[in-house]
Design brief:
The chain has a single domain, classed as BirA Bifunctional Protein, domain 2 (2-Layer Sandwich). The chain is α+β, with helices and mostly antiparallel strands and about 240 residues long. The chain is built from six helices and ten strands; from the N terminus they run H-E-H-E-E-H-E-E-E-H-E-E-E-E-H-H. The strands form two sheets. Strands 1-2-6-10-9-8-7 form a seven-stranded mixed sheet, with helices on both faces.
Length: about 240
């Protein structure tokens, strides 16, 4: 990703943060590119803390990570992980939710929604997240739909797609402590699609024994959807609520 694309991604991330705070004023914005595993684990830390509170909670976090590939934790002890990381040229870290391999980096915005008590919808854990994504993108001038996208990596019926292309993938996890439960739903939003991500993802998944054949034509990023004209109107005010 060149300097111009990096600048666009930075502007888009801050624009998303501003839009999100208009929808969820208490949202946490983490723009520091932290240590990859710690950045992923922060979602679990927040959900565990929420489980310890008696009042129903709705927590929203927008964040970015350093370049890495993220896999479900069931693969953590695979002897192929070292080979896969070397092939991809970036570290591999692990998450508690399911699915397949995804990429993180400054070109990916991660949106996490944690719900407890009366806010939870355990039979439809993706719905509140997809509603939040829909509101967020509608505030930027476009709409999408929940659907599977043929040829997309980590495909699932809860993708957020625009014009038949995957813009964001989602994952969800239900955590329980006694009588309390928390729903943790997460979306990875492509600020700028990078085809080399697919190459790295396919290398890792093939090293793990999966059949992996994905198409760049099945994906889209916000830079492509908004275009240069819209990007220039985002503005240069970079102040945001950091936590």
């Amino acid at each position: 990703m060149d300097a111009q694309d990096q600048t666009r991604c930075d502007a888009l991330f801050h624009a998303l943060g501003t839009k999100l705070l208009g929808i969820a004023p208490d949202a946490i914005i983490h723009d520091a590119l932290a240590e990859p595993q710690a950045a992923v684990d922060e979602d679990i830390v927040m959900a565990q803390q929420a489980l310890g509170e008696s009042a129903p909670l709705k927590l929203v976090r927008l964040w970015r990570n350093r370049p890495c590939l993220v896999l479900p934790r069931r693969h953590a002890h695979s002897p192929a992980i070292g080979e896969a990381s070397a092939l991809a040229g970036m570290p591999v870290v692990f998450r508690k939710s399911g699915g397949r391999c995804v990429a993180h980096g400054p070109h990916i915005a991660n949106l996490t929604l944690i719900l407890t008590g009366d806010h939870t919808a355990p039979r439809a854990p993706y719905r509140p997240l997809l509603d939040l994504l829909g509101s967020l993108f509608a505030s930027m001038g476009f709409v999408g739909e929940m659907r599977s996208v043929s040829g997309a990596h980590c495909d699932g019926r809860h993708n957020f797609a625009v014009d038949g292309k995957k813009l964001a993938g989602t994952a969800a996890l239900v955590m329980r402590r006694g009588e309390r439960q928390a729903v943790l739903a997460h979306a990875s939003i492509s600020l700028h699609f990078i085809a080399s991500d697919l190459t790295a993802i396919m290398q890792v998944e093939r090293a793990l024994g999966f059949e992996a054949d994905y198409s760049a034509q099945s994906h889209v990023g916000l830079t492509e959807l908004l275009g240069n004209a819209a990007l220039s109107e985002i503005g240069t005010d970079r102040e945001t609520c950091l936590a």
